[in-house]
């Protein structure tokens, strides 16, 4: 099946893309959306899951401290596995193809996440999350490379940004699933509700059938792979590729550290704010649990809404300003948003709504990586290069949730300590804004896909 537009223009649809190109984009969209869905489920259930597996009373001071500590540890482990999977499957995508790798990674993270529902202790949960993280990390490179190689050249930015809208969509779905299960169906049973939330991780396995039935390998990859030497990580650090790799890595690592340090603790911060408000209003246990689930959903939804809008705004930003200036603007505004959210004296609800600005900037900038990183590398190295740049930074980003969780858990007032630790995360994107305008970062505006 051809993946290029017919010369006559017949079969074109919206954005000059034919039906098959939209099918490829949709398949990759599902893969990345469910990737984020599975990857973030733990964040929603951590306040109930961690104390249950450790034998602690949910809502007790010991449970709060343990959730902060283990929440940071498990998120960091997820990031390490994500990085390993991204680098590994990026190379696999260049060797066996994009569509096959996409299918394999979706099945891997679906099964790994569902197994978390049966975890008898914290160590089993860590093991199952590690398995899922390999697939979660590997999916992005295959999907991004496949979309970049199939869509028309002049629609690569739009297609890349549309692909990343699946991330906030996946988080919206995770928020909805958690609220319906923990806040409605199993309301009042936090000790067991989290297991059913994890079972939702099986949903991507059904979506993977779309990839298997309708998506073929891109013609560009088949042409480049025929008779070519197998790509290797060493090639990313040779000759001209070295600068391209450094550019992609520099921009990705800033975004990853900021996003994971902030996002991993949205449920924990919103839970702490809800519990303190419930105590001030003398709410009973049922009222407190209801407020906790409501505020977790509220904070996550405004963050995701901001991320969705911010992702779409990268389209005009990249086309008008170019990639470097776009990164500089997004990172500067990201720093201001984080510093304001966690540094200003705000009411609990106002602080939750400030997550919209963090989503708009910290989350929104990720919409650019689905086209910027594939633009940097030639076809035979595209999966390897994009997968490496986008994921190796997670080894560094893994320190963020771990440090924030550890510092917050040691404080007498865990919520205030967490807010203080998150405040300093705002410095990271400000450094990224300066890097974006330095010679380190390569401009790809107007460059044809190699």
Contiguous runs where pLDDT drops below 50 for at least 5 residues: 1-12
Report the count of strand segments. 0
Helix and strand element order: HHHHHHHHHHHHHHHHHHHH
Q: The CATH topology, please?
A: Growth Hormone, Chain: A
Q: Separation of termini?
A: 22 Å
**Structural class estimated from helices and strands:** mainly alpha
Please tell me the CATH architecture by its name.
Up-down Bundle
How many domain modules?
A: 1
Query: What does the largest sheet look like?
Result: none
Shape: globular
Helical region count? Answer: 20
Tell me the β content. Answer: under 5%
The portion of residues assigned to helices is: over 70%
Describe what you observe in this structure.
The chain has 20 helices and no strands. With 450 residues, it is mainly α. The chain has a single domain (17-214, 236-436), classed as Growth Hormone, Chain: A. Helix 1 (19-54) packs across helix 11 and helix 5 runs antiparallel to helix 12 (285-321). The protein is globular, with a radius of gyration of 21 Å.
Outline the fold blueprint.
Layout: H1 19-54, H2 61-96, H3 98-115, H4 122-150, H5 156-164, H6 166-185, H7 190-199, H8 203-214, H9 219-225, H10 241-263, H11 266-280, H12 285-321, H13 323-343, H14 348-353, H15 355-363, H16 369-376, H17 379-397, H18 399-410, H19 414-423, H20 427-436
Helix pairs in contact: 1-2, 1-3, 1-4, 1-5, 1-6, 1-7, 1-8, 1-11, 2-3, 2-4, 2-17, 2-18, 3-4, 3-8, 4-16, 4-17, 5-12, 5-16, 6-7, 6-12, 10-13, 10-16, 10-17, 10-18, 10-20, 11-12, 11-19, 12-13, 12-15, 13-15, 13-19, 13-20, 16-17, 18-19
């Amino acid at each position: 099946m051809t993946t290029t537009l017919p010369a006559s223009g017949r079969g074109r649809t919206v954005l000059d893309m034919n039906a098959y190109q939209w099918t490829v984009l949709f398949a990759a969209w599902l893969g990345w959306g469910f990737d984020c869905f599975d990857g973030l489920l733990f964040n929603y259930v951590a306040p109930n899951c961690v104390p249950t597996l450790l034998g602690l009373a949910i809502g007790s001071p010991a449970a709060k401290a343990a959730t902060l500590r283990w929440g940071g540890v498990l998120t960091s482990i997820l990031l390490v596995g994500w990085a390993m999977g991204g680098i590994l499957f990026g190379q696999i995508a260049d060797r066996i193809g994009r569509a096959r790798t996409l299918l394999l990674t979706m099945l891997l993270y679906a099964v790994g996440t569902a197994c978390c529902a049966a975890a008898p202790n914290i160590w089993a949960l860590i093991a199952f999350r590690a398995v899922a993280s390999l697939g979660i990390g590997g999916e992005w490179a295959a999907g991004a490379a496949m979309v970049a190689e199939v869509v028309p050249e002049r629609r690569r930015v739009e297609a890349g940004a549309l692909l990343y809208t699946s991330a906030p969509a996946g988080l919206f779905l995770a928020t909805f699933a958690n609220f319906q299960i923990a806040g409605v169906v199993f309301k009042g049973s936090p000790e067991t509700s989290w297991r059913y939330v994890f079972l939702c991780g099986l949903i991507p396995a059904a979506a993977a059938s779309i990839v298997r039935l309708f998506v073929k390998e891109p013609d560009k990859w088949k042409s480049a792979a025929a008779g070519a030497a197998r790509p290797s990580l060493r090639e990313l650090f040779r000759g001209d590729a070295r600068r391209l790799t450094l550019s992609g890595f520099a921009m990705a690592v800033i975004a990853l550290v900021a996003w994971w340090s902030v996002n991993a603790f949205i449920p924990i911060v919103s839970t702490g704010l809800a519990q303190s408000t419930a105590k001030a209003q003398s709410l009973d246990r049922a009222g407190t649990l209801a407020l906790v689930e409501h505020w977790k959903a509220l904070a996550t939804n405004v963050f995701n809404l901001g991320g969705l809008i911010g992702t779409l705004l990268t389209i005009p930003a990249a086309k008008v300003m170019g990639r470097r200036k776009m990164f500089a603007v997004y990172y500067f505004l990201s720093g201001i948003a984080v510093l304001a959210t966690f540094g200003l004296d705000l009411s609990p609800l106002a602080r939750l709504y400030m997550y919209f600005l963090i989503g708009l900037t910290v989350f929104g900038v990720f919409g650019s990586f689905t086209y910027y990183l594939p633009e940097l590398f030639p076809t035979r190295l595209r999966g390897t290069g994009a997968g490496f740049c986008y994921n190796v930074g997670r080894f560094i980003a893994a320190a963020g949730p771990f440090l924030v969780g550890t510092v917050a858990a040691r404080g007498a007032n865990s919520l205030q300590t967490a807010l203080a630790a998150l405040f300093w995360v705002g410095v990271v994107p400000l450094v990224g804004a300066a890097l974006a305008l330095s010679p380190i970062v390569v401009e790809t505006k107007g460059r044809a896909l190699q």
